[in-house]
C-alpha cells in the first residue's frame, strides 16, 4: 500500500494499493472488453455521461476541492481555479466539441488527376485503450483532464495518477461510475514508477505529463512497442518586460504567476528579464507584493496565499537552486529558506543579481521563486530566454502590441502570452504543448483529441467503369498523355 500524506500537515489522509503486473493486465482486459460498446454509444451517448459528470462536479464542488487540498496542501483557491474550474469547463468543452473535431473530412479529388471524381474521406477511429500517466502538481487537471478527450473519442482509459496524489483520481472514477459510465471503460491504476512503466505494456497510446527525465523513459518504452506517445514535460518559462510595459500589471502578474500553486505549475513564470529603465520599479513592486503573501497549511477558502510543496523532496531542489544562486553572487530580497515548523513549505522568494551560470536560471525549480535579471534591451532578453533546453511557454510585456507579437514569434516555445501568462491553458480550443525538452505533441484543440485516434483514409470510386484508363491495355497511350498533362500542369514556365 502507498500512504498518502498531506504535505501541509504531515497527516496521512489515505492509503491506496500499489498495482502490479497482474492487476494491470486485469484492468486492461476489462477496458478492452468494454471499449467497443462505449465507442458504439456514439458522440451523443458519450456526451450524455460526460455532461452528467460536469453536473456532478458542480454538485460536489466542496468535496472535489477538499480532496485535492488534502493530498497537495495547496490553497483552496489554487484547487478551485485549476483542478476544479478547469475540469468543469473541460467536461463541457469535450462533450460538445468531440463530434466536430472527429467528424469525417472530405479531401478534394482534384488534388491528383488520377483520382478525379472519386470520393476521398479522412476518418478517425479510437485507438482502443489509452494510458494516461500524470504528475502530482495538478492531480485532476493534468491527469484526469487528459482522460476526458480520450473517453469522448470512444476509448477506454487507464489513468496512472502520481503516487503522491492518487486520491483525486479515485474520486473522478467514483464520479464517472455514478454518472453512468459503463464498467471497465475507465480504470485507475494506483502505484508508483513501476506501475507507470508496466502500464505502457498494456495500452495502445500513452499520454504522459511529468518531468523531462521520466518523459524520455516513457518515450523509449513506447518506441519499443511502436505505440504513439504524447509528452507534456517540464518548463522554465521566461517573462520579458519591455521598457514600455505597464509595470504595475507586469509586476502583479509576475508575483501571481510565479507563486500560484506555490510555483508548482509547468507554465509558472520561472525567470524574468526586465529592460533596464523599468527594472528598479518592477523589482520593488514584485518584492513588496511577495513579502505580503501569507503562507501555511490551508484552512478553508481565503486562509493562505501560498500553499505547500506537494512532494517534500522537491524542497531540496528549490533550496539547492537558491543556495547555488546565492553562492554565485545572487541577492535574496525576500524568502530564501524552507519555512520553519511543521509541513513542507518554502518561503515565497524573490532573487536578483542573477545570471545564466546559476541553476535558478537554467533548471526547472518548480517552487515559489522568482529570479529577476536586468537586461540592456529586448535583443538580450530574447537571446537569454531562448538560451534554455526547455521550450514550454513564455510571456512578453509591452504596450506596443505589434512589437510584442514580433518578439513572441522569435521565442522558441510552444505558447506565448502578451501582457498575460498561463491563461492560454484555460482556453481548450488553443493547442498547448512544449518545444525542445518540454515535450512532443499538444493537448487541447483538434490535435488534443485526434491524438487518441487512428486515422483512416477512404478512397471511394463511384463510377462503374470496368477499368481505369491507366490500366492494361490502355496504359501505354494514357500514361503518355498523362505525362504531357503533368508537364503542362507542373512544367517550367507555369509554376516555376
Ligand atoms: P515525474 O516524471 O516524476 O512523474 C510523473 C508520473 O510518471 C508519475 O505518475 C510517476 O509515477 C510516473 N513514472 C515515473 N517513472 C516512470 C516510468 N519509468 N514509466 C512510466 N511512468 C513513470 O513528474 P512529477 O515530479 O510527478 O511532476 C512534476 C513535473 O511535471 C515537472 O517537471 C512539471 O513541469 C511537469 N508537468 C508538466 C506539465 C505540462 O503540461 N507540460 C504539466 C504539469 C506538470
Keywords for this entry:
single chain; 496 residues; alpha/beta; Aldehyde Dehydrogenase, Chain A, domain 1; Aldehyde Dehydrogenase, Chain A, domain 2; 2 domains; 7-stranded mixed β-sheet; 6-stranded mixed β-sheet; 16 helices; binds nicotinamide-adenine-dinucleotide
Describe the model.
The protein has helices spanning 21-40, 42-59, 61-72, 76-101, 144-152, 167-178, 193-199, 212-225, 247-259, 276-291, 314-327, 359-362, 378-386, 401-408, 447-450, 475-490; strands at residues 2-5, 12-16, 105-107, 119-126, 129-133, 156-160, 186-188, 205-209, 229-232, 237-241, 269-275, 331-334, 349-352, 369-375, 390-391, 393-397, 415-418, 435-436, 439-440, 453-460. With 496 residues, it is α/β, with parallel strands linked by helices. The mean pLDDT is 96. Helix 2 runs antiparallel to helix 4 (76-101), helix 3 (61-72) packs across helix 4 (76-101) and helix 9 (247-259) crosses helix 10 (276-291). The protein folds into 2 domains: 2-233 and 444-454, Aldehyde Dehydrogenase, Chain A, domain 1; 237-427, Aldehyde Dehydrogenase, Chain A, domain 2 (3-Layer(aba) Sandwich), CATH 3.40.309. Strands 12-13-14-11-10-16-17 form a 7-stranded mixed β-sheet, sandwiched between helices. The chain has a 6-stranded mixed β-sheet with strand order 7-6-5-8-9-19, with helices on both faces. The protein is globular and about 85 Å long. It is built from 16 helices and 20 strands.
